[in-house]
Amino acid sequence: MSRIPYDRIRRLRLSFRPVSMQSHRFVAEIWSAGEPKLQICSVSWRSILEQEPLDAAYRRFIAELHHRLAQAGSAVSLEAGLPPAFYWIGVALFVAIALGLAALTARALQVGAYGGAAIVAGFLALFLWQIGTFVRRNRPLRYRADALPPQVLPRVRGE
Q: Which residues of 132-142 are buried (b: 16+ CB within 10 A; e: fewer)?
């Protein structure tokens, strides 16, 4: 196991990355000179089928990491969300699919296929909720160590 001094960390990205078994998961990616990328997640495997959310501990760790990076005078690039090219391609696909599903719903209503319209509208609502949350939380931005972006950090009760 190697150690990375704070002043050697060159880039840190925070993002919202849900997966099939954990729909509320956050990831910190850390790049440093001469070391492989390090990923730290807000969940931990409890068993082969169960993941344990570590929201409060993850949030405290990220805040302390930023505090120490600032103290060390690190020239770290602090980024949140997805890389811009991937994000904007994703936004275009999101809008195209949403408009397509809305058009299908409208067409089904025009021809009197109310059951089909209800099913497609249900998929549209689910799509807007799930993928819309992902898109909203992962908008690319740069931030300062003293101003952590809340959209890429888990909410913790009592904070």
A: eebbebbbbee
- pLDDT tens per residue across all 159 residues of the chain: 567 888 889 999 999 998 866 778 999 999 998 888 999 999 888 877 777 889 999 999 999 999 999 998 888 999 999 999 999 999 999 999 999 999 999 999 999 999 999 999 999 999 999 999 999 999 999 999 999 999 999 988 765
Strands, E assignment, 17-155: 26-32, 38-41, 43-45, 51-53, 77-80, 141-142
Domain limits, the chain: 6-80+142-152, 85-133
pTM: 0.86
